[in-house]
Amino acid sequence: MHGPFVFERCRHSTETSGPLRTPQAPTMIIVTTAGISDDQLGTLVAHIERAGLRAHVSRGEQRTIVGCIGDEAALAEAGIAALPGVERIMPVLKPYKLASREFAAGNTQIRLDDVDETVIGGQEIVVIGGPCSVEGLDMLRETALAVKAAGGKMLRGGAFKPRSSPYAFQGLGEPALQMLAEVRAETGLPVVTEALDPRHVEMVAHYADMLQIGARNMQNYALLSEVGRTQRPVLLKRGLSGTITELLMSAEYIMAQGNRNVILCERGIRTYETATRNTLDVAAIPVLKRETHLPVFVDPSHAGGRASLVAPLAMAAIAAGADGLIIEVHPSPANARSDGDQSLEPSAFAALMKQAALFAVAAGRTMHAGTAPATMVRA
Ligand code: PEP
Ligand code: MN
Q1: pLDDT digits (tens, 9 = 90+) for 216-232
Q2: Strands across the sheet with 54-59, in order?
Q3: Among residues 23, 125, 148, 246, which is most buried (max CB within 10 A)?
Q4: Dist. CA 133 → ligand 1 center (Å)
């Protein structure tokens, strides 16, 4: 098992030296000896940087790994292999480098700024709840209070909506971001919302605690690079026809710009099946957990497309090893301006949370459901 570790913030020379504006492959990892001292580690990083490479230190429970980006030949010339504390140097062979499991000593844990208690990618299953779209301040506040009372740790809500029809509700835009910020201040729930356009990233990052990249934009590389230049955690959704490798390459785009706080989200893929809105690829969860150190979330709402499918898919996600869930909740789903069919009423969300907490224990995780009144959704 990989123990937990936290990417160090960019404070001293052992962190990646500045954002990678021009990503460089290849990438090597230096596995250090179990007892490497801080001095030895400092000397090692200094040598790597003197050789013109970037170093990224990741401390695990058992081992510290130093990821190096740059010219492999320069590393050899600098005599790195002979330094005390170096066990071995290995190339990262996968097409994704920074996102690959080998690049880090353990699972990435993401803490949201100013919110110390919520750790994404740790032992606890973190649930994000909220409406598909922010439709107004009152409904957002009502939903947020219900999400919080049921044990949700973050609030979701779209301000800019990617809709299949240009005539459908496109979201309220910046006023919705202001509402999210206001409800965040009232409830203490950090917020996640989608950035659709590279020109909006700075604005969305100003209001939100986490940026969502929607399924339709998984391969919008300009947008990925732009969110990579912020330090806001990014919830990256899998594209409707994106393979697991493509999803990881999209994470790599974000990380290559210096933002290592990426959360992957399986939200169902398009198959020949029409009984559900999409097909939840449950197997993607353990595959991703093997391939990457990044947290893996599941969106059972967009996968199933119907309220009655949300809880069963959420339980499957937890059983398969998901680190968290993102779920659509609306005070009055029948009147929702988008995705009403798949949105849960607050009492159904509370019921899901109670059930999910039991599955979390069975999966060796923790999860805290609140005390909100709960009613199960009937199939
Ligand atoms: C959403 O979260 O409301 C959304 C549009 O999701 P996706 O990009 O996964 O379709
Ligand atoms: Mn939606």
Answers
A1: 999 999 999 999 999 99
A2: 54-59, 64-69, 27-32, 86-91
A3: 125
A4: 10
